[in-house]
Amino acid sequence: MKYRVPMQRVSLHDLTDISGQESRLGVTFGGLRRIRASEEALRCLIRKNRKPIYGVNTGVGDLCDTVIGEGDLWRLQENLIVSHACGSAPFLDENVSRGALFLVINALAKGYSGVSVHTVRTLITFFNNNVSPLMPAQGSLGASGDLIPLAHLGLLLLGKGNAYHRGRVVPAAKILKRLRITPLSLGPKEALSIINGTAVTTAQAALAVSAARDLLLSSCRATAGLFEVTGASRSGLDARIHDVKPHPGQKAVAALLRRYLSGSARPDAKKKKVQDSYVVRCAPQIDGAVMDHIDAAVRVVEVELNSVTDNPLFFSSRGVFQAVSGGNFHAQNVAFAMDSVGIAMAAHSKVIERRIERLLNSALSGLPPFLAPHGGLNSGLMVTQYLAVALVAENAILAHPASIQSVPVSAGQEDFVSMGMTSARKASDIVRNTERALAVEFLAIYQAGEFLMDSKTYGHGAFSASFRDLKKKIRRRVAPVMRDRWMSNDIAYIAGLIRRGDMR
Question: Which of 21, 28, 454, 462 is deepest in the core (most CB within 10 A)?
Fold first, then answer.
């Protein structure tokens, strides 16, 4: 799909699509005009030499009071790139790098940053040829911009370092030669415009929160499957209950479960207790709270997706441009939001593990222990729960907030940093762990369905269309576990279905 920058409204869905390999960018006439105007404004300010402009004719960080001579302005920009590009493995995934590259391009095209049209067009050429920088995952403090990761984008412009090209890591010099691009000599402010923003944190956060939202919807379908397998009561889904405690997520989850369970004869099929356990009965209240935290994070991240976050910025008033220093590079809002998502998803992974327990524990399910035919000789799904527990335990560690971990840097000049990139990366890891735990639960639901559908008491018709469809999707590649076998590939396959949104 072709997108034209600057995009005035980038949604979470847009960023996910644009991060893929098939999207392409162009620049609008208005964007070209604004880029040229801000570049000329900067050059005019330098010629007039009225006062220091941060990072243009001064040093950076605590060196901001050191004035740089006019003959060294271009050298300063290269120095900023090479001195800041000190990261190493592990590296960010290609889709995060590509998403960050797009966000840099889109922000620069809005015309507040003082860069040249040539630099923006070079970045677009990289993007349209599926080239994106190999960015270190570690090093950003989520303030003063994602300095270290974004400096590796600057290296690409200089023909240094390495880059992704359709999944392969290739030396930047080779890519520039292939694309017939001469390494750039960055003009005043251009290096700072590239490195002094939140594009990497925001791309990682956007992809993580998008995956979290999709995963939660898939998890609701698993909850509905648990209702059917265990014959749980659906009285707790009555809309009247949620109308008198109308949290949006709670109401949405209850409505979703009612839809998934439509046509099922299984809920209330076997009454053992007056009330079911909390992970069943309170699913709208618990999972709905997770949904509300995710939705709150979406709102924060979408503001950041559409922001200009480098420094200083150039504004025009009655045809007169002014360089204004500020702090849009500070990602505190994103840091808080992604810590919240991480905590909510870590809690949700515990819910998933407890639902697995209700499927594998015969005292709770009424089914064979660990859903194993000929138990004893076969262990069935016993140890798949161990995998889920290990993932849940790791999530509990990862859920510790990064946004409170500020450490002053640059001789105290940058005295409170957000650690937003760490928050976003942790949230992403928690989502991936939860995805695998949910895959274990879907495998157990599928296996339980095999026992029940083949029984004399309940046939296929007793189950909802949603449950039958769920089993059909899994059975395309996963056979029922009739005897012990290697299940790693089964779990990985189901996790892939979840990741692609096929289990929603």
Answer: 462
State phi, psi for 389 to the nearest 5 degrees.
Answer: -65, -40
For all residues of the chain together, what is the average pLDDT? Answer: 92
Instruction: Tell me the C-alpha distance between 263 and 431, whole Å.
Output: 31
For 53-112, what is each residue's pLDDT tens digit? 777 777 777 777 777 777 777 788 888 899 999 999 999 999 999 999 999 999 999 999
- Region 29-43 average pLDDT: 91
Q: Which pLDDT tens digit goes with each residue over 134-144?
A: 999 999 999 98
**What is the percent of the chain where pLDDT is above 90?**
76
Pick the CATH number of 205-304+332-499 from 1.20.200.10, 2.60.40.420, 3.40.50.150, 2.60.40.150: 1.20.200.10
Element (H, E) at 465: helix 465-475
Q: What is the DSSP string of 120-179?
A: HHHHHHHHHTTEEE--BSS---SSS-SHHHHHHHHHHHTT-SEEEETTEEEEHHHHHHHT
Tell me which of 3, 54, 446, 493 is the catalytic residue: 54
pTM beyond 0.90: yes
Is 54 an annotated catalytic residue? yes
**CATH 1.20.200.10 residue spans of the chain:** 205-304+332-499
Nearest-angstrom CA–CA distance, 58 and 65:
6
Class of domain 2-197: mainly alpha
Contact indicator for 289, 250 with CB cutoff of 8 Å: yes
